[in-house]
Amino acid sequence: MSFWDNLWDIVWWVFSATVFFAYLFTLFAVIGDLFRDQSLNGWAKAIWIIFMVFLPFLTVLVYIIARGKGMNERAMERSRAARESTEEYIRRVAASPSEEISKAQDLLNAGSINQEEFQAIKNRALAAA
């Protein structure tokens, strides 16, 4: 009887592959969290890694139980920081040409720049639009 003739062998193979890939995903998530965690020193990280080499399934399970809440908090903090960084970048680059020209006009009126510099800023703002 070949492998493909038995339906339960196929179902078992698919289940085993799914569990294996889920375990690999979890393992890499734990390793990533371990190295991003600023509260652990190098020795603690080394001990976790050594245990992951010799007892991988048990160590990942213990790590998730013991430090799972912290993993979630650190992931949420990274997500919040990335979102804020993106929003700040968008605010910084989304200035309209009229705002840039208005600011340049204020500088020209204050005497901080001359007419040629104002014209260069105006031309750059209009070209970027």
What does this structure look like?
This protein is mainly α and 129 residues long. The protein is built from five helices and no strands. Helix 4 packs antiparallel against helix 5. The mean pLDDT is 87.
End-to-end CA span: 70 Å
Rg calculated over all Cα atoms:
28 Å
Low-confidence stretches: none
Average pLDDT level: 87
Shape summary: elongated
Major sheet characteristics:
none
Reading the helices and strands in chain order gives HHHHH
Helical stretch tally:
5
What structural class do you assign from the helix and strand content? Answer: mainly alpha
Count of strand segments: 0
Oligomer: single chain
Strand percentage, roughly?
Answer: under 5%
Helix residue percentage? over 70%
